[in-house]
Amino acid sequence: MKRLRLGMVGGGEGSFIGGVHRIAARLDDQFELVAGAFSSSPEVAKRSGEALFIAADRCYASWQEMAEREASRPDGIEVVSIVTPNHLHVPIAKVFLQHGIHVICDKPLGVTLAEAQELAQVIDASGLQFILTHNYSALPMVREARARIANSEIGDIRAIEVEYLQDWLNDRLELTDNKQASWRGNPAMAGAGAIGDIGTHAWQLAAFVSGMEPETLRGELLTRIPGRVLDDEVYAEMRYANGARGRLWASQVAPGFENDLRLRIVGSRATISFRQQQPEILEIHPHHGNSYVVTRNGVNNHDSVRHQCRTPAGHPEGYLEGFAQIYREAAVKIRGGDAPLLPGIAAGLAGMKFIETMRESSDRGGEWVEW
Ligand SMILES: NC(=O)c1ccc[n+]([C@@H]2O[C@H](COP(=O)([O-])OP(=O)(O)OC[C@H]3O[C@@H](n4cnc5c(N)ncnc54)[C@H](O)[C@@H]3O)[C@@H](O)[C@H]2O)c1
Fold first, then answer.
1. Which of 218, 234, 253, 277 has the greatest count of CB atoms below 10 A from its CB?
2. pLDDT, mean over the chain
3. Is residue 105 classed as helix, strand or coil in its secondary structure?
4. Domain range spanning residue 39?
């Protein structure tokens, strides 16, 4: 077996998440980056490719050219990572799938539910793998929480509370030359504000760990910073079929919060609590019992969780390793194996449906809307 030949669209000079994907792809040595269309500017694309030691004839000026040329080479890429602004995810994914190339794509899936549904059909017809990098759901202690809940350790779920709070958009960075903020402030490129950028992560995390989707939900999309076009804060409430209630709060204008993604799930026997800024531990609070923490790679981890750990207990793993786990499992799936916890098109469709359902509720003054 050889390393999978990987291409990348986006991720050029000055960009953020492309570099994280490259580290993640290298961490377990299953991929080799051999081609890219790294930027919308041909010069920047070329310069970025050179800095990554990509052969000159495989640094492309456009992703369309890359898909065609790579598909026609015997040593062409087998999988492409899409790390561009949101509006390009679906068009790029479709073209690469139509050229027989597997896709790893960053979230949110796109800018509308309708285009996401079209993509789902292309994926179906292609028989290829499509992986969406909801990286937090690959963290060991998140997987541990999921395994314990699936094993009925906390009893019947009564409440699901998820928050993703940041403060970096508390200034109008979209009016500056900040590369990440400028497209995020543009509705045509981002599609949605905080709800798409971090709300979809929170939504996916809650559904992944609890194993539940609500029957109805309602909420509000807020724009706190005057003059901003898109939402920068979102509040949602959920009602589940078993009587459980949920709340989701995502904000990019919450001073003092960096990447504070937290999840608490309250059951009839215990509460489980996770915070991504402390990814080494999972808190368990049993009724009539002492609260305790489960430590990553500790003796009482679920077997599957211990197997995914890369370093011994106490040598911290976090964001990058979670991302790498997505790549490790993507390699398994692309090679025909099984990776049931990997987020894919279903998670992407749910994220887009969450955005559109919440918009509908918000436009109707916070009314309950069917999921
Ligand atoms: N999973 C996560 O934790 C996470 C974190 C940050 C961003 N993201 C997602 O990753 C994506 C990129 O975000 P970012 O913060 O890295 O943005 P960024 O602005 O830093 O990078 C975007 C890159 O795409 C390139 N690009 C734009 N148009 C292109 C085109 N036509 N052809 C080729 N390249 C093109 C830009 O030149 C740039 O290199 C977004 O969808 C975002 O939601 C995910």
1. 234
2. 98
3. strand
4. 4-128
Residue 83, in any domain of the structure? yes
pLDDT at 326: 98
- pLDDT for 1 equals 87
**Total structural domains in the chain?**
2
Pocket around ligand 1: residues whose beta carbon is below 6 Å from it?
Answer: 9-12, 15-18, 37, 39-40, 63, 83-86, 88, 106-107, 133, 135, 179-180, 183, 197
Same domain, 56 and 176: no
Bridge-based pairing state of the strands 281-286 and 233-239: unpaired
Q: Which of 9, 22, 40 to mutate to test the pocket of ligand 1 (most atoms within 8 A of CB)?
A: 40
CA angle (227 as vertex; 223, 230 as ends), nearest 5? 40
Burial of 56 (0-12, 13-18, 19+ CB in 10 A): exposed
Do 100 and 152 fall within a single domain?
A: no
Residue where a domain terminates, one of 128, 152, 177: 128
Interval between CA 15 and ligand 1 midpoint (Å): 7
Choosing from 128, 147, 172, the residue where a domain stops is 128
Mean pLDDT confidence for 253-282: 98
Atom in ligand 1 nearest the alpha carbon of residue 13: 39
Q: What is the pLDDT of residues 166-195, one digit of tens each?
A: 999 999 999 999 999 999 999 999 999 999
